[in-house]
Design a protein that fits this description.
about 160 residues, mainly alpha, 3 domains, 7 helices, rod-shaped
């Protein structure tokens, strides 16, 4: 029965006045029913103080963990943003774009084909730059925006036409 009285007395500290008064009255009624005097009531204040200190320590530990998790989240968010900037996304590859300028892969293939035809029209001519771009395109499946711009320039130079992109 003492446990119930202790719980009620703890509720008497409630910031809600109605709840606190009700708990105090109920505890006092139980004490009268059981013939428990305030002087004989064993309320261990030291244990409550120890429990309170433990709870405060747990709260501090949880606050540290939350801070650490927030810090990790910031680092992961930064890493993710850096990765997005550094590498092209899978979506761009799956949608058939050559780079972030959104030139379609078929347009790049056609550009290489027409440039190579123009180079070979007057006998086998060699252009190391165009061949290196084509090799990268075939091996990696993408070109940087600057490489696409240079491919465009060479397309105009060798075919005399504007590319379709």
């Amino acid at each position: 029965m003492n446990d119930k009285i202790i719980k009620l007395l703890r509720l008497a500290d409630s910031p809600n006045d109605h709840e606190a008064i009700s708990a105090y009255r109920h505890a006092r009624a139980l004490m009268q029913k059981e013939n428990i005097e305030w002087t004989s009531f064993s309320y261990n204040a030291t244990q409550v103080k120890t429990d309170l200190i433990k709870l405060m320590q747990q709260k501090l530990q949880l606050q540290r963990e939350v801070y650490d998790l927030q810090d990790q989240l910031q680092r992961y968010t930064y890493d993710l943003e850096s990765a997005k900037k550094k590498y092209r996304t899978d979506k761009e590859v799956n949608e058939g774009y050559s780079d972030k300028s959104h030139v379609a892969k078929r347009d790049i293939d056609e550009a290489f084909e027409k440039i190579m035809d123009s180079l070979n029209r007057f006998g086998p001519k060699k252009n190391d730059f165009i061949e290196s771009l084509k090799t990268q395109w075939e091996e990696k499946g993408w070109l940087s925006p600057k490489q696409v711009a240079k491919l465009r320039e060479n397309f105009i130079r060798y075919t005399g036409f504007e590319p379709p992109w």
